[in-house]
């Protein structure tokens, strides 16, 4: 699964709030989707990296799903 935890850490480190992202043209609806763990487009990811002047790894990371909690496939 994709985790956005690095984004929140990067925002904190760079002292950029969600309000500042909004002022710089990043859609609030997309930020709320991120807050709720929903998927975003690569364009949104690109926009975040541009605003924050950071790499993709400072916005998202892959965290392996817990195999035991996944439903069985038939």
Would you write up a description of this structure?
It is a single chain. With 74 residues, this protein is mainly alpha-helical. It has a single domain, classed as 434 Repressor (Amino-terminal Domain) (Orthogonal Bundle), CATH 1.10.260. Helix content is 47%, strand content 5%. It has 4 helices and 2 strands. Strands 1-2 form a two-stranded antiparallel ribbon. The longest helix has 11 residues. The two termini are 22 Å apart. 14% of the residues are buried. The mean pLDDT is 92.
Question: What keywords describe this structure?
Answer:
74 residues; mainly alpha; 434 Repressor (Amino-terminal Domain); two-stranded antiparallel ribbon; 2 strands; 47% helix; 5% strand; elongated
Short description:
The protein has a single domain, classed as 434 Repressor (Amino-terminal Domain) (Orthogonal Bundle), CATH 1.10.260.
Unreliable stretches covering 5 or more consecutive residues: none
Total domain count: 1
Shape: elongated
End-to-end span in angstroms? Answer: 22 Å
Largest sheet: 2 strands, antiparallel
Per the CATH scheme, the topology name is: 434 Repressor (Amino-terminal Domain)
CATH domain class name: Mainly Alpha
Output the structural class: mainly alpha
Proportion in β-strands: 5-15%
* Overall pLDDT level: 92
Widest sheet: strand ordering: 1-2
Oligomer: single chain
């Amino acid at each position: 699964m994709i985790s956005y935890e690095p984004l929140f850490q990067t925002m904190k480190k760079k002292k950029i709030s969600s309000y500042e992202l909004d002022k710089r043209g990043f859609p609030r609806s997309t930020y709320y989707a991120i807050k709720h763990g929903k998927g975003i487009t690569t364009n949104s990811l690109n926009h975040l990296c541009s605003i924050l002047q950071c790499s993709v790894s400072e916005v998202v990371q892959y965290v392996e799903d817990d195999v035991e909690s996944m439903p069985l496939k038939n």
